[in-house]
Design a protein that fits this description.
By secondary structure, this protein is of the alpha+beta class. The protein has 2 domains: 11-43; 50-154. The protein has helices at residues 63-73, 81-98, 105-119, 121-131, 137-154, and strands at 11-18, 24-31, 37-43, 50-52, 58-60, 102-104.
C-alpha cells in the first residue's frame, strides 16, 4: 500500500479491526519512511453486476455513487453516516443476491428510494423529485399523497 504522504511502498500494519458488520477490515498503518500514519480498508472483491443506464451505456456498480446520492438527499437531516453506510451495504447486498451480470439503473434508483423512505421522509421526497424528474407540481403532489397514504397504512402520525 502506497503512503498517501510520501508515496513510499514501505509501511507496516500497527492495528487491524473487523468492522461491526464483519465484511471489512480496518487497518492502521505507519510509513517506514516518513512515519505518517494512515488507514486502509480491506473488503472481499465481489463480482458486482454492470449497471445499464437509461441511454444504454454500461458502467460498473459504484457504491460511492450510491453514498453520494444518499448524502445529498439527507443533507441537513438527522440521519447518521452509519445509517447511510448500512443502507449502501443493503443495496450492494441486494444487487449481489439479485444475481445476473447486468442491472438496470432504474432498479437501483427504486431501491435507493425504498431505503430513503425508511430513513427519512424528507430525504425520500428530495431524492424522488430529482430521480423521477417531476415535470410539474401535480406530479410532486401525487408523490407526496402516496407517501402520506403509505404513512397512514403503517400507522405513523405527527412529526418526528
Amino acid at each position: 500500500m502506497r503512503c498517501p504522504s510520501c508515496s513510499s511502498l514501505s509501511n507496516r500494519v500497527i492495528d487491524s479491526r473487523l468492522s461491526k458488520e464483519g465484511n471489512e477490515i480496518r487497518r492502521r498503518r505507519v510509513c517506514d519512511d516518513c512515519h505518517r500514519r494512515f488507514t486502509t480498508y480491506e473488503r472481499v472483491a465481489e463480482a458486482l453486476p454492470v449497471v445499464v443506464k437509461q441511454d444504454g451505456r454500461r458502467e460498473p456498480f459504484d457504491r460511492a455513487k450510491i453514498m453520494i446520492g444518499l448524502r445529498k438527499a439527507c443533507e441537513k437531516r438527522p440521519v447518521s453516516i452509519d445509517s447511510l453506510e448500512r443502507a449502501v451495504e443493503r443495496i450492494e447486498g441486494w444487487t449481489q443476491e439479485r444475481g445476473g451480470k447486468e442491472i438496470p439503473a432504474s432498479e437501483i434508483g427504486e431501491r435507493v428510494m425504498e431505503e430513503l423512505h425508511e430513513l427519512d421522509e424528507v430525504a425520500y421526497v428530495r431524492f424522488a423529485s430529482v430521480y423521477r424528474q417531476f415535470k410539474d407540481i401535480n406530479q410532486f403532489m401525487s408523490e407526496l399523497k402516496g407517501l402520506l397514504e403509505r404513512r397512514e397504512r403503517k400507522g405513523v402520525h405527527g412529526d418526528r
